[in-house]
Automatic annotation (TrEMBL):
Main subcellular location of this protein, as a coarse class: membrane
Source lineage: Eukaryota, Metazoa, Chordata, Craniata, Vertebrata
Pfam families from the UniProt entry: SH3BGR
Protein name: SH3 domain-binding glutamic acid-rich-like protein 1
Assembly with partners or alone: Monomer. Interacts with PFN1/Profilin-1. Interacts with ERBB2. Interacts with ATG12. Interacts with BECN1. Interacts with translating ribosomes.
UniProt KW Nucleotide-binding keyword: no
Cellular localisation: Cell membrane; Cytoplasm, Cytosol
Amino acid sequence: MVIHVYIASSSGSTAIKKKQQDVLCFLEANKIGFEEKDIAANEENRKWMRENVPEDSRPPTGYPLPPQIFNESQYRGDYDAFFEARENNAVYAFLGLTAPPGSKEKWSETLVRVLVTGNRHALL
């Protein structure tokens, strides 16, 4: 599975540039494979992104703004959803990926499983 991050390389908005950079830097730092899809340089990318962001995730007026994140063709969310997942150590789940062993997210998953099932041996 490949993560697709829809960005605008020539955005005039500093806020959009910072958000795009934040997502891309996080993915690179955590060695999560991804492809950048530039909506400013490629009309097909722009059209695809606009058509595939779900209706309930679009702004009330205008078009969805980058960055928009997909796992293959499955919409995962925008920057705000990514940021919330990152703050909650749930980025892998947000992206639809399995957290690697030793990650905070994997540890959190294991801890929840122990709390829910009462199986302390899962920690070993």
